[in-house]
Structure formats: C-alpha cells, structure tokens
Records
---
Amino acid sequence: MLYLFQEWTELVLRWFHVIAGIAWIGSSFYFIALDLSLRQSKNLPDKSHGEAWQVHGGGFYHLVKYLVAPSKMPSELTWFKWEAYATWVSGFALLALIYYAGAELYMIDILKYDLEKYEAVIISILGIVFGWVVYDVMCRISLKTNVYVLISSVFILITVMSWIYSEIFSYRGAFMQIGTVLGTIMVANVLMIIIPGQKKVVASLLANDTPNPIHGAIAKQRSLHNNYLTLPVIFIMISNHYPLIYATEYSWIIISIILIIGALVRHFFNVKHTGAKAPYWVTFPIIILASLIFYISDLGKPKLNQIKDTALIIKKIPKKTLIGAKEIIIAKCAMCHAQEPLWDDMRYAPKLVNLETSTDIINNIDNIYKQSVLSYAMPPGNISMLEEHERYLINQLYLSVNKLKNQ
Ligand code: HEC
C-alpha cells in the first residue's frame, strides 16, 4: 500500500508541476511575443506605448500596453504570479520527495564525496540560495553597465556552479541541482522583483502619484531573463531519462552549451515576433553547438580500465608468443569471431566474442583457453583444423598473460 501511495503522490505532483509550468511558461512566451508585436497608432490612449490586434478562439482582441501605468487604476486587474509560484512549490516538493529523500540514489556519489544524506540536502539548498543571491546582485550592478557583461557573468556563474556540483554530487544530482538553481532564479524574479515592483506602481496609482518608471524597466529585464532561461530549464528537467547525456563526465559543459542554444532559439522567435526578418543565421551556431554536445557526451563516458590494463599486458608479453598466438587465432578463429564474420549467414561474432585484435584476444584469453586448450570445443568440429602445436602456442600466451595479471 505504501508503495502505491508513493507512486500516486509522485505522479500527481509531477502532473501538477508540469501543468503549472505550462501555464507559467506559456504566459511568459505569450507576453514577450505580445510585447514585441506592439505597434504605434494615432488613436492610442494617453500614456500608452503601443497596441496589438489578435484573433483567437473565435474572437478579436485589442490589447494596449501602458509603459509605466495608465493614468487611473483600472477597476479589475489580473495578476500573473500563481503559475510561477505553483511551479516552484510543486517542483521543490518533487525534489524533496525524490532527490532529497533518495539522496543516496539520486544525489550522492560516494566515489566523489561520501556525504551523509542531510549534508547533500544542505549543500543543495545552499547552492539554490547562492545562485539566486549572486545573480540578483549581478543584475542590480549591471543596471548601469552593459547588458552583454551581465549575460556573460550569469553564463559564467551557471557554468562554474554546474562544474562544482558535478564534482560534488552524482551526475544526475548535479544536473537536477542546476535545473533547480535556474528555476529558482526565474521564480524569485517573479516573487522578489517583478511582483513587488508592480505592487509599488499600483500603490502610487492609488495614491494619485506618478509611478517611478524604474520598476517597469527592472521588471522587463528580469522577465526577459526568464524568457531566455525557459528552454534550458525544461531541457534539464526532462533529461533525467537520458543517461548518455546527463551521466557523463562533461555533462556540466553540456548544460552551458544548452544555455546558449536555448537563448539562440528564444532570440530567433523574439526577433521574429517583432515583425522583423527572422534571424535564420542562428541555425549555424546551433548546428555547431549541437554537434559539439554530441561529441562531448561521447568523450565523458566511463574509461574502461580493463583496456588500459590490457594495453600494459600487451606491452610486456614476449613478442614472439603474442604474435605467434595472434596469427593462429586470426587464421583459425576470426573467420567467425569478427565484427563482420566471413562465415556464411553469420551476422555477428558468435556470443559477441570478437577475436581480431591483440586487445580482443587478451581480454578473452581465459575463455579461449577453456574452449581451445582445455577442450576441443573450438573451433567447432575443428573445422579450421587447429593443430596441437598451435593449441600449445595459445597455451603459452594464456600462461604469460596470467603471470602478468597476477603480478
Ligand atoms: C565456424 C565458426 C567458428 C570458428 C572457426 C570458431 N568459433 Fe568460436 N564460436 C562459434 C560459435 C557458433 C560459438 C557459439 C557456441 C554456442 O552457442 O555455445 C562460438 C563460441 C566461442 C566462444 C564463447 C564460448 C562461450 O560460451 O562463452 C569462444 C571463447 C570461442 N568461440 C573461441 C574460439 C576460438 C579460440 C576459436 C579458434 C581457435 C574459435 N572460437 C573458432 C563459432 C566458431
């Protein structure tokens, strides 16, 4: 019963999380696109900045944007905040339920750091808070400086955090940690910056004061950041089904490249929505970066120690023994035991035992010995006529490899 209950809790929470996320990201996409599509016109009301006409679901919509605020407070106002909060709360609940409660499976890697569960949780929460605080300070400082300086600083911050966490946590834990850091930055932008700013504007309107335009400018900056972060965050959130991508040594670089790709894709749509010519040039850097990711994910997989040992053994075996035995095996076994067997109708090496290179032979030597020195099992029916003195040479190889292995 307990398992069933757990299963339902996780699925329902995830369901809720995804729905809240769709509502939030959907409105973020919508409003950025709306903002970019605003046009000037002569009959716009006082203090307005632009208008847009849209058609959806059987009706026409006429939207007008007031850059700071309208002169008078409207009687009804829809706020967009619960979508963001609900996404974060449900996301954090999932993180706690799956990653924190199962930290030994999903976060801790004892070969990196043999952390206690609670230590892993503290390190994760500290990182989430740290990410937001540093990002927020960067944005505040950068209001006076160049936007590219800010973008590069945030990019470096995330890449460094991503690297540090991949050194401390398991690869899966590190990936989710960075997803959480980014998601938290996005929600905190809404909770701590955008909504409080809008509240101040509403308060000055109600007090018949002129609202300070700085709140609108700051909110616009943060909301644009959120827009650029959405794609990478979603990538990270769905990536835990793909171990070849998240569970390799350089997955932290993959995150930083995805940040750039996600931003390029958003850039494409953001420019397109202004009505300008879509920047198709982004496809070139995207293709290059995507190929780079593909390549990097292959680099970081486990290095099979066996192969290293084998190389060493091969170096030390008496040359005559190795060459002699290898020649025999290639001549008498490799017509079947090859990646592309010559034997009729054979599509793979039998039992996937390849015997084509020195490494193949050394790695399979115990089995070769069993099949063709201790017995006449191979070649089957002695079809390739393996002579006794040839079996003797294979035996010599077996003996010297085992001597080296036991040293
Ligand atoms: C005519 C094709 C053929 C040739 C030649 C041949 N083998 Fe095989 N080998 C097979 C087949 C088929 C099997 C799978 C047998 C089975 O299904 O149990 C096999 C299986 C093996 C296995 C795996 C056994 C196991 O169950 O783990 C080894 C090791 C092996 N062969 C070594 C050799 C060696 C060494 C030679 C040369 C001296 C050799 N084979 C030559 C066809 C061949």
---
Amino acid sequence: MYNIGIDLGGTNIAMGLVDDALHLVYQVSEPTNLPKSPERLADDIHALVVRMLADRGLTEADVGCAGIGIPGTVNQAEGTVEYANNFGFDNVPFVRLLQERFACRLLAANDAGAAAWGEYLAGCGQGVNSMVAMTLGTGVGGGIILNGRLWGGCNAAAGEMGHMVLHTGGRPCTCGRKGCLEAYASATALVQRAAEAVADAPESLLARAPIDGRAVFAAAKAGDATAARVLDEFLTDLAEGVTNIINILQPELLCIGGGLSGAGAQLLAPLRKKVAPMIYSRYSRRNTRLELASLGNAAGIIGAAGLDRQEGM
Ligand SMILES: [Zn+2]
C-alpha cells in the first residue's frame, strides 16, 4: 500500500508515492501556474495524482492515505486554509475542496511542518523525541516537533522562526516588521547582502557574474575577502537566531535544510562554532545537536505522506 505526499509550492506542485517503509518510490511535478482559483487548483492537483498513479499502473484504490503540505496556515479540523499569501487564500475551505476530489482520506499541514515531519520520520530526526527543522530558502521557515508530535500551536501557525526580530528597526521584512531573522539569514537576504557589499568592492569575484547563494559560498571558498565577510556576517545573524531557538526549546536536534544547506560543511562548521559559546546551556553535559537536514526536497513529500503517522490522526 502506498501513501501520496503532496508538496504544494507557489512555483511547483511536487508529489510522490511513498511506501510503508517511507521510501519515496516515484515522484512527479508540474508548475503551479498561479493565480488560480481554489477549485481549479484542487482540480489540477487531483488530476496530477491520477496521472502519477496511472504512470505506475495504480488507481486510488491502491492508496492508503494522502497528505499535503501547504505554504500557509492550515486548519485541518475545519478543512480550511486560513491564510496563504502566495495563493491569495483568506479562509478558503481548500482542504475540503481537495478531500471532495479524493477517494482516500486527505490530511493537510503547513509545508514547513510537513518537511520537518518528514525529516523526523525518515531523515536526520529518526529516533529523536524533539527537534526543530529550519529551512533557509527564499525565506526562513521551520517546523517544530515536541514529544513526537508536530507542534502547530493553538492555530496551526507555529514555527514561524524566520520572523523573530534580531535587529530592532532593522531591514524591512515581508511580514511587515523590521529586523526579522528572515531579512538577514534567508538565501534572499544573503544575495542582497552580497549585492550591497559588491557595490563598494568592484574587485570582488562576486562582481563578475549574477549573484546567488551558491556564488557567495564559492567566492568565499576561493579566498574572496568581500564574500568571506558577507558570509561571516550572515552566519553571525543565523547563529543568533539558532541560539534563540535552542535556548527556548532545547530540542534534541536542530537541523538546517532548504537551498542554502547545499553548502554543507561550509555552512554547518562555522555555524556550530558560533552557536556553541552562545547557548545558555553551554555548561550542560548534553546539548542540542546541530545538523544538516538529510532528505532535501523529498522531506516535504515524505512528511506529507506520513501525516497519518501522527498520534490521533
Ligand atoms: Zn518578518
């Protein structure tokens, strides 16, 4: 028996078939093509599911359960998406609309929560009781798992760790506040910081090509002083945010995923070095492990497919 996991993004709809051992055995994706009405989006998602099953010679009768991660505030009990800025959803019964199209049961969660749940079930979080999964991409998102359950808070909006303010009155953030972690430590912010630095350092390697996150890491590795400084300042802000999360929750594990985690040890090693002396519990015998997420883009699909493994689901 397979479960279906769907990772709904503003750019792409990715989905896959996940077996009982939580292996992603088949995956498809197509552009989301926004703007689109909720009904049309639900139709398109279901059509892609039917096509994916047909690719493998399966039908909905071969599916145990489906799960979807949605970039917004998901009210599973009511079957609504209370807010999703990319989709223009404001209290839309989107989960109900989708469920009406599926023969099997459909569960929904926030996309970052689903990705965290995937890492917990099948990735770097296997065997832990509590963890925080942080994603560094266009924004800074995250999911929290406490006592083996995805923590949504009273309204399924928990985990917005990108919107803790690090610098009062600082860089404007998409959420309307100023100085949020996301405005300093997302991939978008890294590129912005690099672009600003290059304006005063035309000799930098970064001035030779369009800048993306990977270019900043590569230039720093090649000995470029401007890139090294930008990266160090970026990591200092990220470390402050990571330390705040550790101090509040003391999870067994905090993992870093998203596009920038592709930098691997070049991100993780200096981050660990900066965080270790700052955490309040630095004298404790046991502290939060800081690791890279291990499932990459598959985390969201596997986590969504495994939403039925939550207690009470
Ligand atoms: Zn913010």
---
Amino acid sequence: MLETPVKQRELEKVNQLLESHQSLLDAYQKLEIIVLGLFDAERMSIFQRRRQNQDLVARFKTGSETREIKVPISPQSIAGYVALAQLPLMIKDPYNAEELRQVHQRLRFEGKFDKSSDFTTRNILCVPILNSGVLLGVLQVINKRKGDFSDDDLQIAQDLTQIIGNKFRYELGGTQQPFQYLVHSNLLKEADLNQITESSKDNRQLIQRLISELRINEEHIGHALSIHYQVPYIPFNPDKYHLYQSDSRLNSSYLKRNLVAVISDASDNPTVLMAEPNNAALLMEIESALGIESYEISVGLPNAILQYLGASGAGNGAPGAMDDILDEIGTSAEEADDSSDEMSDDAPAVVRLVSRILHDAKRINASDIHIDPEKNGPTRVRMRVDGVCRDMNQVPASHHSAVIARIKIMSNLNIAEKRVPQDGKIAVKMSGQLVEVRVATIPTVGGEGVVMRILASGGALPLEKMNLSSRNTGMLKDMISKPHGILLVVGPTGSGKTTTLHAVLGDLNTPDKKIWTAEDPVEITQAGLQQVQVNPKIGFTFANALRAFLRADPDIILIGEMRDKETAHAGIEASLTGHLVLSTLHTNSAPETITRLLDLGLDPVNFSDACVGILAQRLIRTICPKCKEKHPASEDDIAFIRRQYGEAYIDEINIQNLELYRGKGCEECGDTGYKGRTGVHELLAMTPDLRSLVYKEASVSEMKKQAMKDGMRTLTQDGILKVLKGDTDIAQLQIISGAD
Ligand SMILES: [Zn+2]
C-alpha cells in the first residue's frame, strides 16, 4: 500500500492538475495516469451527471478522439447504481450475478466497454462524486492488478472524488447552497439569505419566507434549485403534468411527508419531482416501489409538489381525507413555532382543508357550516344537518387565521378587515355540481368566525313529495289553478318556504305559461322559469323586479319575500291585474299573516279579494328509516295527543290501541334516531266567510276560528297526523308548539 505522505502528495498533484486545466476532459489523460498509479489499476472512468438527461456520461480521449459512454442513473449499471444510491461500491467480480444481486435485486453489469473491446473487467471500485451533498458524477476504477480493492483504496477514492467534485462544481457553475444563485444574480442580499436561513426550520419554511417576506418569485427560486441540484426545475403545471399512474405501493402521506411526487407528461414519461433531489435514500425507495427503470429527476418547490399530490384523490379534485390533512397540519403546526400567523392562507394544507370542509358539508347534506374560534383552544367546525348543528372537526388554533383568510379570499372579502362583519359568496364545484355558498364573517372576542350557508341546488321537488295531507293537497291544487290571485307561504327562516314555492311552480311550469321569479338568493333552478336574482345592495329590490316583470308579459310571478309595504302592495296590485303571484312572509301562522299585512297598511278589501290562500309551514325531523321501531303509545302520549289535537277534533283521528314510532339510533343517523326532514302545514283558504272577517279587520283568534270551521287544520294538528303516520315522534312537535 501507498504510504500516507505519498498518497497526500499524489492527491495534491490531482488538485494542481485540475486547477491548471480548463476542463476535466483536458486534464483527463494526465489525471488517468495519476489515478491508475494511486490504485495500481488498469482503467479509470469518470462519469459526469447530466442535468437535463438524468444519466451519466463518461468521456475519455483515445488519441484525438473523444468517446462517450452513457448510463442511466439506475441499477442497470454499476455506475448508475452508485449514482442512484450515492454510496461507494466494491465489486470483486462483476460477472458474478449473485454478488450483484446481494447489492441490489436488479443490479446489472452491462460491460459496454468489454463488449466493444477485448478488455475484461475483473473488479471495480466505484465511488459517487458529491459536492455539498449533490451528486455530480461517479468515479470508476477498474481492475486492480494485484488482488481486490481494499478499504484503503476506498478511502483514497473518496478523497479523490472530493477534489474532483470541487472541479465538477466549478465546471458546471453549481452553487454551494441551494439559494446562492439568488445572491449571485442580485435578487437577494447575502445577509438576508443568511438571516432567513438561520431562522428557518427547514428548506420548506425557508422557501415560503423567500416568497412571502423577501418577494422572490417562484420561478427564480426554482432556477436556483435547478442550478444547485443540477436537475431541471418543474413548476406546478397541471396542464402539462399529471400524477404518474402506477400500481405502486407509495402512499400519499408518505409522499407528502417526504415532499416527492411522481409525475408524468403527456407521453407518460415518469419524472420523480423532489424538493431535495439529493436525497438518494428516498430516491431508492421510490425507485424500488415504482419498479420503473427509466425516469427523470427534477426539483420542485414543496408547495408545487403538494399541489401535484393534492390533485390525485378521486381524480375530481377531491382534497384528500380530512384526517390526512389534519395530520399534515398537526405536523406543520408543531414546526411553526407558536406564532399563529406562521401559516399562510395559500399553504396547500389550508387550501385543502377548506376544500375538504366544503366537500364534507355537501356529502352529509349540511345546510350550514360554522367555523367558530375558541378563545383558548382549537377552532370548532360544526355543520347543520336537518336543522341541527353537529360537531365535525377541530382545526388547530394556529391555523384559524389562515383558514378564515382562505375562505375570505374565496368569497372576495377583505382579508385585512377583521373588525366588522362581511358578506360574500363562493361558487364551488362539488361532485360535479356548481354549488353556491353564502359566506358571512362575524368578529367575536375569540377571533373571527365564519358561517357558510350551502344553497340547495338542483331541481324542484314534485308537489306530491311535499308530504301535504290529502286535504291540503287538494286545496292547494285548487288554489293554484286560479288564473290570478296571491298565494302566500309563511314561516320562519329555514321552514322550507322556497322548496314549497318551487314545488308549486314545478306544478305550474308548462310551456303555455310565462313564469318570472325574483329571488334572494336563487337556490333552486328550473328549466322554463325566468329566474332573477335581486340585489338590494345595488338598489335592485323585490319591488323593482316586480315592476320590471309586469312590463314583461308574465302569467305567474314569484316574489321571494314581501319584506316591506312597497313590495306587498305591488304584489297585491299584480295579482289583482290578472297574474298569479306567489310570495313568502316571516309570520308564524296563516291567520296571523292577514293581520300582519293589514298592519303594514294594505287595503283589507284589496287583500282579501286578491288572496287565494295562505300556507304556513315548519320543517320537523323524520325518524331514521334504518332504526325505526314501533312501540305502544303510553297514556301520557295519548293525553298529549288529545290535548294538542283538541277535543273538538279528536274524532277525526283514531287513538285506540295507538302505536307510535321512534328511532333507536344507528350508524346511519349518527345515533340521533332521525334522518331527513318533512314539512308540517297549515293551509288557510280565503272563503267568503273569512273574507268578510278580513273586511272587518277582525282579530287573529276570530279569523282562526273561521278558518278552522272552513277546514283548516293547525300546524300542531298536522304534526300529530305525521306522528300517527310514523313520519316523526312527539318530541319533534315541540318545534311547532307555540306557533298557534
Ligand atoms: Zn338510525
């Protein structure tokens, strides 16, 4: 073996040699002599990694001719494997397949050089050439004359590759650190880079801060990384690249954690997109899991990689499982020190979290989403399903601001303004459907809260599915068959008035009728209707819309709500001039609606002439069909029913041997025993007797008495009918009680 001083002297020679030559190739022949002497070997190859081609190329001069050997970075060759694994390798006999297999299952010796000459490779020492952890090439020394390569040879080879690495780096114009290029090209001050590097936990955070704090654009950062890692940079470009489809065992949380995505272009060539392409161990794992032999390696920004991964899911932009997202957030929350503003609103996890919340809401058929800040704890996400709020998930407090900001950006609200409530809306595509979401922000002492209302989308429910009693169905159909008049649907917010009006319109919607609707908002759309969204903020009110409709030759007009005297008056006028008008009011019962309108200043004669009927309604929860069970009514139940239905009417219903229904609670209904909702109704018909009471402006109770004599049944009575039918239980009737 060579003595240490001799070795040192030879390595110093190599250093001087490389310094004094323009390129490695120029120095090659002299270098070869020194290297072969150092190892007492027959041949040497230096493979250089090519940035754009993802392979290694060895160039050497034979006489005046320059020859090239190219090998991919893969176990297909020994140099390729060493480049892939970034580990040195000593092979005693490259033609011994078993020895190769022990290194890697698919390691092969190609023997390209042997095949093209009468040379026989007997043993190989192969060492990666690295600089600052980046693979630049591979040094291969072949055929030690006496015996096998030793550990001492390995040590010398590693010292040698370090020297060569510096030369390669110089030749390739590479950088010592990932972001040095930004300093070289005057995009960033060295001091700023140092400061931000020291105070960032990792490259991912560093990159985010370069973008957000130092305003460096992504393209420049990508270029800097490309130069440093010596691989091409690929930005997020879903038009050009998609996730590579394979039966690999790579799970998405593994890929996300390691910031690596396997993508491919239109011609399906896979590229391993990595945030840190010099992570050889990771590359090896990916390579073996994918089982692909040819692929490119590129560098991508962490966010872009997550965007590629995020776009996978169910293939329709599904944002990934909530648990995965919360996991990811949990991890990044830990990393984000404890500053609550650390997380930015466009961080992929935040984007997907908000998207996931919206998808979940749609999936469980929620009407509202509540994102409530808590003063000392995680943010609560609740959703209202069938009228009842349900706890969904918790978002770490550190992400509260980012989530709220994301929602505000989506709904075009001012993210800087956190002290006053704001209203906006989002149109999102959920399971292929465009859904409108109304957003209201409310500042609380615990922070800014958001309530989102998901507008029911899709078509109208048929009138027959409204669960009206047969008497009410007949009466309602009779009322709407009139060519003119006004029909009012009344009840508090969330009592299903819009659904009912659209069911009525659906029944009336025939080609021979021109139907105009003014709604706020348009929740249900129906072909054949001319639907208009009013916007009081810009002065386009229900009254304005109604006046416009009257000039547009209507047969039937829907006015979303009679909020004020002007609208109510215009609605009555329209119905008296030959149109059927449908509208709503926020009143509790049908008889009360009459006095409310008269209190607004409507003429009693005009109103009673115009009015064809008033339908009051509520929504109550229905028993879950999966866990519904029968039970005999208790004495208390029967007494309750008697009292509520009224002794005067009790003969209308059969309470002998009464059996009632209840929901035991099951998985399907989240153990609530309820699933879905149905309406209960109170339909008042404007009969001549009632009309004369309206003329006299009689009291509510007088009018109610008359209406009931004419056949009206109260909300409570209708509710009891639905209890007896088994739609609901007695507990749900409490929602109605007090209504009449
Ligand atoms: Zn159930």
---
Amino acid sequence: MCSDCAALIRDEQPADIAEVRRVETEAFGQAEEADLVDRLRDQNAHLLSLIAEVDGQVAGHILFTRMWIRSGETRVSAVALAPLAVLPEYQRRGVGTALTNEGLRRLRGMQERIVLVVGHKEYYPRFGFSRESAERLSTPFPTDSFFALELVPGALDGIAGSVEYHSAFGL
Ligand SMILES: CC(C)(COP(=O)(O)OP(=O)(O)OC[C@H]1O[C@@H](n2cnc3c(N)ncnc32)[C@H](O)[C@@H]1OP(=O)(O)O)[C@@H](O)C(=O)NCCC(=O)NCCS
C-alpha cells in the first residue's frame, strides 16, 4: 500500500485486462501503448505487470519485459520498463512513483541487474535512472530520453552495445 496516495500495488490479473487497456489509452491519449501491452501479453513477454488500485479501481499500470544488450560477443540480460501509465484523474498524487518503486523492489528480489527506460527526463532520475549509465548503449531513441538503472552497483561496467527489445515492440 502506498501511504501517500492510497494505492494498492498488486500483480495484474486476467480480470484487469480491459481496465489496463483503458488506463493506457486514457493516459497516453492514444491506443498505441495499450496495443503494445496486449501484444506483449499475448506473446507471453510479461516479466512483471503491476496494477495500482485506488478505491477498488485500476488507476495505474506498469509493465516490465525482458530485453538484451548486445555487448561484444555476449548478450547481457536487462529489463525494459514500458509503458507506465496513470489515469489522468489520478495523476500527481504519487501513483506512478508507487508503481515504479514497487516494480524496482520486486526486480531486485528477482535478481535482475539492469533496467532501461525511454521517458521523461524530469521523471525517471528520481528513481536512480541516469543518462550517464546509458551512454554506452546505442538505441533507436533520442539519447536525452533514454535512461539506465543499475539495480546492482556496477552492473553496467564494461558493457557497451546495442539494445534489443522484444519483437512485439516492432523496433
Ligand atoms: C508520467 C506518469 C506515469 C506519472 O504518474 P503520476 O502518478 O502522475 O506521477 P507521480 O504522482 O508519482 O509523480 C508526479 C511527479 O511526476 C512528474 N511528472 C508527472 N508527469 C510528468 C510528465 N508528463 N513529464 C514530466 N514529469 C512529470 C512531476 O514532477 C510530478 O511532480 P509534481 O507533482 O511535484 O510536479 C503519468 O503522468 C502518466 O501516465 N502520463 C502519461 C503517460 C506517460 O507519459 N507515461 C510515461 C511514459 S515515460
């Protein structure tokens, strides 16, 4: 439970699927992210899909999927944070923060080491994501919106190369 925003953070259940679609569509003002979430779920790519429930309603959603960094001859395992969405009427009360913090806490427990995100530069640094950690990774995204977080200090040491998302991202 998030003490500031009264959100219960829990795993997505099959009964939440329609509401997750609504949250994604209303938050982004388009269906693209909702379609992506559905494709990833259909292809079993979900590593962690969390719901923020406020007053019994699905108010937010965050998804983490497996991704890779091609570094020299090796393929380093990482996690993609995408998308994160909060219904407009529930924004700016800590719901997105609670979803992100709980997701990162769970990923640490799952022994994950690296999380990558494309997003707002004012938002993700507060969770420890940084541009600097991501600077040796090449991506199809604008560099000022691509961030990395080492869940284990030094997890990105010596790693340089291109990132590989699940094919459902269509990149
Ligand atoms: C981004 C988003 C998930 C944040 O969720 P939230 O529950 O409103 O966030 P929180 O309440 O935990 O944090 C609020 C803080 O986030 C920042 N923030 C919120 N939306 C932001 C945005 N669009 N751009 C930059 N910073 C933003 C603000 O600094 C805000 O702090 P303030 O209230 O002191 O100004 C939500 O605004 C959203 O769903 N937006 C549309 C979809 C989207 O852009 N998703 C993220 C893709 S990277």
